Amino acid sequence: MQRSAPVDPTKMGVGRAIAVLTSGGDAQGMNAAVRATVRVGIYTGAKVYFVHEGYQGLVDGGDNIRQATWESVSMMLQLGGTVIGSARCQDFRTKEGRAKAACNLVKLGITNLCVIGGDGSLTGANEFRNEWSELLQILLKAGKITAEEAKRSSHLNIVGMVGSIDNDFCGTDMTIGTDSALHRIMEVVDAITTTAQSHQRTFILEVMGRHCGYLALVTALSCGADWVFIPEMPPDEGWEDHLCRRLTYQRSIGHRLNVIIVAEGALDRHGKPITCDIIKNLVTKKLGFDTRATILGHVQRGGTPSAFDRILGSRMGVEAVMALLEATPDTPACVVSLSGNMAVRLPLMECVQVTKEVTKAMAEGRFEEAVKLRGKSFENNWNTYKLLAHVTAPAVKSNINIAILNVGAPCSGMNAAVRSTVRIGILQGHSMLAVHDGFDGLAHGTIEPIDWGYVGGWTGKGGSILGTKRSLPASMIEDISLNIAKFNIHALVIIGGFEAFVGGLELVTAREKYEELCIPLVVIPATVSNNVPGSDFSIGADTALNTITTTCDRIKQSAAGTKRRVFIIETMGGFCGYLATMAGLAAGADAAYIYEDPFGIHDLETNVEHLLEKMKTTVKRGLILRNEKCNANYTTDFLFSLYSEEGKGVFDCRKNVLGHMQQGGTPTPFDRNFGTKMGAKAVLWLTDKLKECYRHGRIFANTPDSACVLGMRKRAMIFQPLSDLKEDTDFEHRIPKTQWWLKLRPILKILAKYKINLDTSETATMEHVIKKR
């Protein structure tokens, strides 16, 4: 896949034609993928066609296949579903139907097809590609096409993007639509829990997902459900008694409600379906609890796409066009997908084969294997769920005390991390201590024991219930060491932003002087700014990103019916441009000004002229994002004055400073799940570290690797010593020196119609899904 000579990306597609279609069940974020495919296609010089109504439109041809323009995909980023329509198509299953489809493509000179859909749609596309030359022969014989046309379209390239809320396609971490479906589900769960608590009820919720339990599993983790039924792992024999014991136990420790999540394809060990009604009758008859069942249904497919799905769709669209234009007759059909935060290309048929193997493993009762085949992310979720839901605290205590504190500004998802830290700690036999108000609390001794029931229902709560402060420990180190001794603290979990990182370093430095600080500690990054060294993501950033994106949608909509208007919006993030850049991708911004990508007067001039040109077409909205500290002199007011003056007579301007609403709100499913997994992983690591550091009846930890940041790096959660991360940190501006998301900035500019050079040297290479068995 490595190319020798550098290719000019704006010429890659000259003389080529690409068709894009959405097929099968709709999913939120498909429009983002369509928009990116169209715009990047046009950017490379290719002609791009919409195929309306999925494969049906491909077969019927005519007006269903229309050329797309830059403007034709404007304002569709925030719409749910698919604007170009999707249909289940019987005709395409027949050879006659596929021949008709081939004829329509040949006539328009289209030899590149981008399909956005589920595994069925993608398998169909691959079959179409495999019999392409045979179909051309049929059409030639029938005189439908000329030999010249057949020669010109001798080969069909295919690239797939997986659009499905079920997340049931193997090889991909997240399919387009999954995150948005989780948003819908969590909105409902949050609403239901408030009513259930009022009446001490048991609620049973059925979520979608066909034969895949992903939605059910993540929902259960995100809302702290008492039980989840998924098709990959049916409950053991006698689950009925186990479930009743569990519900009774939850009530006995003071819980007012029980939540049970059921995947629509849930089965027992004998392959019999487990439905809401079966569980409802069981709980009502056996326990006499007031029980209600809710089937969520098609609500899950609806609504606007989440920020994650828009960015995912946009990134996949770019990658798909590149994959199509780089394909040769020998490259296998591929799907573009996301692994961790990296775009990858995978052979389509290998993914389909593994996806089928999961179904087969489930049918044959090889359940452990089914969970493994679903992929790392599914397996991690399942293991975390098992840890939290089906284990009772050991009778023997470990005599270890672990203290938890929140440091820095509050953000959504902190409480989820605290909850799982406390509960996993208790299950490990430790005593957990809550420290209120950050390092201040550690110095002043506002420390108290925290038990299992205390953190019940915390996953869905925003802010920081423990209380948090920005103060650093250096000035109070003496008091802190005294309290660590007084409360007999053996390990620390510090959940917070850049202050948590710096505070952790200060504690490590003070170890030389204070022996009490020689205890293992772990920092869990939690901040809306996403500026903690050692992690690609922080807890809280996804919630803030969604808040900004929704607000931008509303602001853009507020101008409907008025003349042309440009909005200048200031986001948080300190010196870190993550929020501004990602929100720019998710809301379709024309520019995002950030500190890491320096800009001067010439850049501002270019941006203003670019907007003026754009506003002369049918486009009526402009969106400019500015990170709060991107430049001390080019302030939000300055930009507002500049755009207002230069846009006179063409557009008018409005400005918004979003402020603290970015730190509030209910945590998104991603932040709840991420916080829960980070908390669990941190405590398990501490448990191992404490065993290593136990000598002569006491704990002594002074090695660099006994004080770590737990971070998400590319595809895995890893522990990195605080001292190792010093090198990569710009302490003055409170940001890491290298940041992965800066690579996405060119995409933002291309989608806003700038003719910049997209660096195509670092392409995603084709990876194999099927391990050599």
UniProtKB/TrEMBL annotation:
It is found in: Cytoplasm. It catalyses: beta-D-fructose 6-phosphate + ATP = beta-D-fructose 1,6-bisphosphate + ADP + H(+). Residues 1-390 are annotated as: N-terminal catalytic PFK domain 1. Residues 401-773 are annotated as: C-terminal regulatory PFK domain 2. Its main location: cytoplasm. Mg(2+) binds at residue 119. InterPro entries: 6-Pfructokinase_euk, ATP_PFK, PFK_vert-type, Phosphofructokinase_CS, Phosphofructokinase_dom, PKF_sf. GO terms for cellular component: 6-phosphofructokinase complex; membrane. Signal peptide: none annotated. Keywords: Allosteric enzyme, ATP-binding, Cytoplasm, Glycolysis, Kinase, Magnesium, Metal-binding, Nucleotide-binding, Transferase. PANTHER family: ATP-DEPENDENT 6-PHOSPHOFRUCTOKINASE, PHOSPHOFRUCTOKINASE. This is ATP-dependent 6-phosphofructokinase. It comes from Culter alburnus.
